[in-house]
Design goal:
By secondary structure, the protein is of the alpha+beta class. The strands form 4 sheets. The protein has a 5-stranded antiparallel sheet with strand order 2-1-5-4-3, with helices on both faces. It folds into 4 domains: about 55 residues; about 100 residues, 2-Layer Sandwich (Beta-Lactamase), CATH 3.30.450.20; about 80 residues, Helix Hairpins (Orthogonal Bundle); about 200 residues, 2-Layer Sandwich (Heat Shock Protein 90), CATH 3.30.565. A hairpin with a 5-residue loop joins strand 4 and strand 5. It is elongated and about 175 Å long.
Length: about 450
């Protein structure tokens, strides 16, 4: 074989070898490219997972800190920094004792609960007190768990804490409320007992003063009769005040019981007009009564109905001079049966909207100067309204300063059959809401019809 042929064969072998090498290189380049793309996807996934975890870390409302087994803070989330007032750089590297109140610090591990966490692997819902940078004491609900690597070696402790300041404040308010309610019940019981104790000697004083008045009149000792009558009048006034306090304490304690009877409204009105006559004459007022026969029969507590009406008429007489007081009675059929409305209208001094807002509060009168000028304790209307609501009704008012007031006393004709969902019995311990009083300027209506003819009550 010639030298030319040998050279040609060698060149052919080298060409084929180079092609194989180029093919192998291209294959390796492809593999490297695919590996690079896979590595980039892994990096992207790791970055996304890291960002996701960091977002969770930042978004947690509860404080989260990672602490080494020796009690050094390794990491803290934004909630921990916000609660304690430190930056993350200030917290990292500090001992756990720095953020604990002195009362919770006993030893290196005991104070943070790390000893129990390391011993038992977890600690759940233990109350502790954190110490903020500004020295505020923050009660927290602490939980911790051990963090281990794949080999089971303890890497640290994950500590989670929830601020329970508001919860403790709510619990304290609840305890104070319960204590206040208990004190209020004790007060009501005391008032009821004392009222009974006071009424017995007062009845004796009133009885003996009446006997002495009659005896002095018979013997002709007329000079002492006015003084004896003053003693009797003062005793009756004091007895009325004690009865009001007793009624109020019974209502607040939820022990007021109604004695329901069926009686004629006309008979009740006749008795009340006779009782109120001296007060009418004292202020030179006239009383106009309309619709008594329209009332028919009423099944309710006659003593409480009489007390409410007497209170409304007495107030009308007290705040009216040389005027007219009108009592209008009307029976109306509504959605829940028959209703009886008593409208007491006067031409007296009237009230402003601000005065009306305080009208039905205990021991409160429309104006602070009224007790000095007109007398009274501010209990009459409050008690009357509560009695009315106990019987399923209500008392509302509308008034114009300088022109007079109109009180509407509304009752179901049969209290025993009245559904309690319309007017709940008023046995709650708190005062009536003044805003509800402001809403009572307009009289209620049944089925869209006014309870009273405005012309007869004006």
């Amino acid at each position: 074989m010639s030298a030319t042929e040998l050279l040609t064969q060698r060149l052919e072998r080298e060409r084929r070898a180079r092609k194989k090498a180029e093919a192998r290189l291209e294959s390796k380049n492809l593999e490297l490219s695919l590996a690079h793309e896979a590595l980039q996807r892994s990096r992207d996934a790791i970055g996304a997972a890291t960002a996701y975890n960091e977002n969770i870390w930042r978004s947690m409302l509860n404080t989260l800190m990672v602490v080494t087994p020796d009690g050094t803070i390794q990491a803290a989330n934004a909630a921990a920094c916000t609660l304690l007032g430190y930056s993350e750089a200030e917290l990292v590297g500090q001992p756990m004792t720095q953020i604990l109140a002195p009362l919770d610090v006993t030893s290196t591990h005991q104070e943070s609960g790390l000893a129990d966490v390391l011993t038992y692997g977890a600690l759940c819902n233990v109350e502790k007190v954190y110490l903020a940078k500004d020295a505020r004491l923050i009660p927290v609900l602490f939980s911790g768990s051990v963090m281990r690597d794949e080999a089971g070696t303890v890497q640290g402790v994950v500590c989670v804490a929830q601020d329970i300041t508001e919860r403790q404040q709510a619990e304290e308010l609840r305890r104070q409320k319960e204590a206040a309610e208990e004190a209020n019940r004790a007060k009501s019981a005391f008032l009821a007992n004392m009222s009974h104790e006071l009424r017995t000697p007062l009845n004796a004083i009133i009885g003996y003063s009446e006997m002495l008045t009659e005896d002095a009149t018979d013997r002709g000792w007329l000079d002492i009769v006015p003084n004896l009558r003053k003693v009797c009048t003062a005793g009756r006034h004091l007895l009325a005040l004690i009865n009001d306090i007793l009624d109020l304490s019974k209502i607040e304690a939820g022990k007021m019981e109604l004695e329901l009877e069926t009686f004629r409204v006309s008979s009740l009105i006749a008795d009340i007009t006779t009782t109120i006559k001296p007060l009418l004459e004292r202020h030179r007022n006239t009383l106009a009564v309309h619709g008594t026969n329209a009332g028919g029969l009423l099944h309710a507590d006659p003593v409480r109905v009489r007390q409410c009406l007497l209170n409304l008429l007495s107030n009308a007489c007290k705040f009216t001079e040389h005027g007219t007081i009108t009592l209008q009675v009307r029976r109306t059929t509504g959605q829940h049966g028959d209703w009886i409305a008593f409208c007491v209208t006067d031409t007296g001094i009237g009230m402003t909207a601000e005065q009306l807002s305080r009208l039905f509060q205990d021991f409160s009168q429309a104006d602070a100067s009224m007790p000095r000028k007109y007398g009274g304790t501010g209990l009459g209307l409050a008690i009357s309204r509560r009695f009315c609501r106990l019987m399923g009704g209500d008392i509302t008012v509308e008034s114009t300063p300088g022109q007079g007031s109109a009180f509407t006393f509304l009752l179901p004709a049969d209290v025993s059959q009245h559904p309690s969902t319309i007017f709940k019995p008023y046995t709650h311990l708190s005062q009536p809401d003044p805003k509800s009083c402001e809403a009572d300027y307009r009289r209620p209506s049944l089925q869209g019809q006014p309870l009273l003819d405005e012309r007869t009550c004006a």
